[in-house]
Specification:
Two copies of one chain form a homodimer. Helices cover 50% and strands 11% of the residues of chain A. The first copy, chain A, has 14 helices and twelve strands. In chain A, strands 1-2-3-7-6 form a five-stranded antiparallel β-sheet, sandwiched between helices. In chain A, strands 8-10-11 form a three-stranded antiparallel β-sheet. Chain A has a two-stranded antiparallel ribbon with strand order 4-5. In chain A, a hairpin with a 4-residue loop joins strand 6 and strand 7. The longest helix of chain A has 31 residues, at 325-355. The relative contact order of chain A is 0.12. Chains A and B meet through helix 6, helix 7, helix 9 and helix 12 of A and helix 6, helix 7, helix 9 and helix 12 of B. The complex binds adenosine-5'-triphosphate (2 copies). Chains A, B: This is S-methyl-5-thioribose kinase. Chains A, B: Belongs to the methylthioribose kinase family. Chains A, B: Its EC number is 2.7.1.100.
């Protein structure tokens, strides 16, 4: 997609002028536009993000660039803010206060304006600073349950679901990124892959020669592209969440696409596992194990509760034909499928964040480089173990037990 | 969708005028348009179909009506010929001579013009007349293998597949018909259901109170709407096939949608089973068992052959990461999934053709009404048995063994 003729990358002055032309948003900021503060907060890989503040309020301004922000040679279509805007419009009514408020979308400039979060910290940063907010993980469980249930065939007539699938199936550029960076590159030689520590290389080579692991990845790749169960966030890592102790918001839905519900669950769990291995502190590790369990249980229970409460009157296209104990068994089977996906996608997320293109900052808190290498090897070895033994790591309880047993050397501990 | 202002249902005179305005097609017919013969051949439920012939050739003219042809009170959008045209354009390059040639589509009049088949008989009619052409079933196996493999992620980059899925996900009206008539109505009280023979009523009541059967149907319904593996024909019964002994064509792709490959296989197999139960003659039954096996094996072997020959160089998005014996196991698992879908969808197709809205003519060859009832009960009982025991009917060999054992009374025979 070529930039539309009207498109240009806006600087602070142009941002002020644009917002001044939008009465509701201008009123929200208050005062004269010349005095508005424009503060760049871009820290992701892709877009320009600014906070624009006036005497009475602040908004968050996001604009797509015709390339990856951190690599101008990597061209990219502008429509990603369009998909983020559509995602927000679809998901906001379902998830109450767990996202930001949608304020404006400009289709020529590919600008999205949303509520600015004040006092909120990106969850990954907060975790790295040692914050522990036990409410966050279950809130994300609630978020995923409501967002996925509400966009699925369980809640809506298939006509609505097909129409939404059509819209998000146009999100090709970002879906291609997920496919390549998460589900392909790390499993073969590719110039985008990188890792500093030579200690990781033997594990990488083992992963790439493990038929069981590669087949698990092939299966996840097929499931990612062929199980349009619900509208996914598509990139639900700890950098896509901003929080305080009491208030949690999911941001940055530009990767939105219909896919398997366990993909969102797995991204979140995988990033908690990265944090787990990046904290050698035993108590912090225990807290993270607890977060993963709390996320999963809240998601699971809430999703099932929505499903059961929808039984009468029959709502979506997949209204039940059978009732009673047999129907419970079928529902449990569906939840087990989501659980298996969660475990698998968590595995590939961990691997790609250590040996792929886009690493995470979690391990930067560890000063000594050999210790960083050991922790990374621990995470990588754990993910490898999980993917190679999916038939043995069948439940979140199995997953957490193995995680607790991994002592950070990349080998299962004594138990 | 409201008829476009230009839309009107064309009579013979208007059909001649339209074709006269299309030089290539007019040349194909030859002579003066006033002399062209226009012969109505509509026998389906939905559309007007005419054969238009001149001194040098003939074409087949199909136009959507704003309602179901056989029930003008049932309103229906006109765009179904659009989807048939798109299906034909997508599938024709993949399947060689196994469809009709696409000649013209008129988006205002919702008219599709294709090659006219001469000397071909609708397969259901031919089967009812006692024809047995052993080449047909394996040709349909070839057709399904090439059409589905070639539109799947195994053969094409995901961007192409997502784009095609988007197009066909707009085929809402006909997908709704499949959902309601095949996967919902027969399993509950609905005014569209009907069956003549009171002897069938107890079986219907049993089906509707069998939790295992209802859960199997729920699962098939979810799979139909949530496994967009490949572009389906969507209505591959024996009335959608025209054949001679040597030349077989698949027509009428207006139900085209992305879905599970086993759906197309199951429709075809289910309709052969209906024919099986409609022929009390033992030799004819043997021949039908043979047809089902020949269809399945040709489909299976051809699909696998396409897949394996595509291994080098990697083609579609789902190019393999793993090679060797483990990859064979994964491929076999995928084929087993198609087989399970085939068995399940065959089951629901048989049931809906006996107790749902749209019956088939197969049983009309049986003169005595009590014998017709017995044969229908046999088919219904067989489908019920299969759906209730999917865990025991896991392979096409199991399916065929059970079919051979069913003696037409609706109860398994002595074996
Ligand atoms: N609504 C908001 N209020 C305050 N700050 C925000 C808001 N949205 C984003 N930010 C800040 O801007 C940063 C970048 O935002 P975001 O993650 O949406 O950008 P991105 O370029 O799409 O990132 P990525 O490359 O991870 O997709 C966030 O990490 C956060 O610090
Ligand atoms: N290309 C063709 N050449 C000759 N006859 C044809 C051709 N296509 C269709 N016919 C005849 O017209 C009849 C109706 O065609 P078709 O099945 O496409 O219509 P339909 O109304 O869409 O049916 P349905 O309700 O089953 O979807 C066929 O059964 C066949 O007898």
């Amino acid at each position: 997609m070529e930039p539309t003729p009207a498109y240009r990358t806006l600087d602070a002055t142009a941002i002020r002028a644009l917002i001044a032309s939008l009465p509701t948003i201008a009123a929200r900021l208050g005062g004269a536009s010349a005095q508005w503060q424009v503060r760049e907060v871009s820290d992701g890989n892709l877009n320009n993000v600014f906070l624009v503040g006036g005497p009475s309020g602040e908004v968050c301004f996001k604009q797509s660039l015709p390339h990856v922000r951190v690599d101008p040679s990597w061209k990219m279509p502008l429509d990603r803010t369009f998909f983020e805007a559509e995602w927000l419009r679809a998901i906001q009514p379902l998830t109450g206060g767990l996202t930001t408020e949608f304020l404006h979308y400009d289709p020529d400039l590919y600008v999205l304006i949303v509520e600015s979060l004040s006092g909120h910290t990106v969850l990954r940063t907060a975790l790295m600073q040692g914050a522990h907010w036990p409410g966050v993980a279950p809130r994300i469980g609630m978020f995923v349950a409501h967002a996925t249930f509400g966009t699925s065939l369980l809640a809506r007539p298939f006509e609505d679901v097909f129409t939404a699938r059509r819209l998000f199936a146009a999100n090709l550029a970002l879906t291609r990124i997920t496919l390549d960076l998460v589900l392909d590159d790390p499993y073969r030689d590719h110039p985008r892959n990188h890792w500093h520590d030579p200690a990781l290389t033997p594990i990488v080579l083992d992963i790439r020669s493990s038929a069981a692991t590669l087949l698990a990845v092939e299966n996840l790749r097929r499931r990612f592209l062929s199980q349009p169960q619900a509208l996914l966030h598509g990139d639900l890592h700890t950098g896509s969440i901003m929080s305080t102790a009491d208030d949690t918001r999911v941001i940055d839905g530009e990767f939105a696409v219909y896919g398997p519900i366990g993909f969102d669950c797995g991204m979140f769990v995988g990033n908690l596992v990265l944090h787990y291995f990046a904290t050698p502190d035993r108590a912090a590790r225990q807290a993270t194990l607890h977060d993963i369990a709390a996320f999963w249980h809240r998601f699971h229970d809430e999703f099932l509760a929505l499903w059961i409460s929808h039984d009468t009157p029959p709502p979506g296209t997949l209204h039940p034909l059978a009732y009673g104990p047999a129907a419970d068994v079928a529902r449990q089977r569906f939840m087990d499928e989501i659980m298996a996906d969660t475990i698998g996608f968590a595995g590939v997320e961990i691997i790609r964040r250590i040996i792929g293109y886009a690493h995470t900052a979690d391990f930067d808190t560890i000063a000594a480089s050999h210790q960083r290498a050991t922790c990374r090897a621990g995470a990588l070895g754990f993910a490898y173990y999980v993917l190679e033994h999916l038939d043995q790591v069948r439940t979140m309880a199995d997953f957490l037990r193995h995680l607790a047993e991994h002592d950070g050397t990349g080998l299962p501990g004594p138990g």
